[in-house]
Amino acid sequence: MAPIVRFLTRTLAVAAVVGALGSPVRAGNEALLLIDAETGKVLQAENATYPWYPASTSKLMTTYVTLAAVKSGRITMDTLLTVSPNAVAQTPSKMGFRAGITVTVDNALKMLLVHSANDIAVVLAEGVSGSIEKFADEMNATSQRLGMVQSSWVNPNGLPAEGQISSARDLGILARALMHDFPEYDFYWHIPSIKFGRKIMTNYNKLLAEYPGADGMKTGFICSSGFNLVASATRDNRRLIAIVLGAPSSAVRAQKAAMMLERGFSDGPGLSWLLPSLGTVDALPPINAAPPDLHEQICGPHHKRPRAENEDDDAAAAPGADGDQQRAFMLTNLKGSTKTALLTGNPLAAVPPIVVYTGPKKPTGSGEAEADAAMLKQKKQKQAKKNDKPTDKPKTADAKSSTAKNDKTDKTEAAKNTKPAAPKTAQAKPQKPKATPTTQ
Fold first, then answer.
1. pLDDT in tens, 152-193
2. In what order do the strands lie in the sheet with 354-356?
């Protein structure tokens, strides 16, 4: 009976999905899409062809256009791009570089995809095409070529703009195109963290640390869009792409994506013949409508605290609490082997932060690691000197007292008969803790 029950459950679930595809969408519903990265086959879809504000998932298109420019030879990964006043004027999240600073394309892409830096998106746009307007033209031309018929781009970073529109369908097509057209650059969209100077910036896509097999791609948030996520994961040489648009929080978008991915991996390609076909992502019929504006729902006055236009920053500001909350949320809603796997998380979480920097490419063996180690050693030495000061004062006082009471010929005898041994003991004791912080 159990296999029959499972079959009926899956059949009813698919029927609901098919019904959702054919019925009108209500503004405010989430858009969900799960596809096979290799074949483009749709495994789950809900409101997937409804237009949506993409927010920072726009940066996936910025990445595609940039990598296409590299592939065509217009620029290289080592090309230096200059931060303009226009880039400086962008709102957070951003790197915050001043005008005139230069950064390589390689470092810019890492900052763009990990820290979701809005200023760096403009740096790339102006460096590749000369202006934001010309870069947006390239974004739109690329969309048309890829079959993204519901997408319109005004800027490279996804900051609020009426003309900045996409859909789960189109973002699925874009995610597949990035994987297929630029496999040599696949690591860019699953870098767990970057390090600039002594500052470490963690990827806003928490699945990279929490979900086993997660390997991409990009988050996004503005009040009008809700919390968006284009996520990918690989298991048993099979890669799936899950897209969530309009979630009410960063924790919910991660949980929704994890549930879709797990369902796709659990069913597996061997059972796909049991389920009615939903076709491929490019064959999903687009809906001609205006995107829902979720501003009131997501950022309205009923919320306990005001939400920033990029709340990903707020989530990163308290990684401990949000991370525990998100993991608990996912564990509560997932079953079986995934619960066990989530307790160990994703091996990517153990990958050290990738060092990024301004200026030209640094030669191999430039001593970055050594410089960091030297800075840390210097900091510890300064701290050790501060700890030494209290122990030095008694020694100086003892020496002055001894000098005042005894002349040169009586010093030796005074040292034996009066209490210089006590300072010696006091000197020996501080030497132990003095050495400990220096070696930690």
1. 999 999 999 989 999 999 999 999 999 999 999 999 999 999
2. 199-202, 193-196, 354-356
Q: How many residues does the chain have?
A: 440
Q: What is the pLDDT of residue 362?
A: 84
SS3 of residue 18 by DSSP: helix
Cβ pair 37, 269 in contact under 8 A: no
Active site residues: 56, 59, 116
Element (H, E) at 27: none
pLDDT in tens, 388-422: 655 444 444 444 444 444 444 444 444 444 444 44
Our CA angle for 260, 178, 108, nearest 5°, is 110
Q: Which residues of the chain have pLDDT under 50?
A: 1-28, 309-310, 312-327, 329, 331, 335-341, 343, 365-368, 370-372, 374-375, 382, 391-440
What's the token pair of residue 378?
């210097």
Phi-psi region of 159 (alpha: psi -120 to 50; beta: other; left: phi over 0): beta
Q: How far apart are CA 213 and CA 347, in angstroms?
A: 8
What radius of gyration do the chain's Cα atoms show? Answer: 29
pTM summary value: 0.73
CA 268 to CA 186: how far, in whole Å?
A: 24
DSSP code string of 91-139:
PSSS--PPTT-EEEHHHHHHHHHHH--HHHHHHHHHHHHSSHHHHHHHH
- Token pair of 387, please? 């700890």
What is the rounded distance in angstroms from the CA atom of residue 84 to the CA atom of residue 97? 9
Token pair in block for residue 262: 């797990």
Contacts by residues 311-319 (CB-CB < 8 Å, ≥ 24 positions apart): 311/221, 311/227, 311/250, 312/56, 312/93, 312/116, 312/204, 312/219, 312/221, 312/250, 313/92, 313/93, 315/204, 315/250, 316/201, 316/202, 316/204, 319/202
CA distance 105 to 137: 20
Query: DSSP character for 153?
Result: -
Are the C-beta atoms of residues 220 and 57 closer than 8 Å to each other? Answer: yes
Give the pLDDT confidence score for residue 56 in this predicted structure: 97
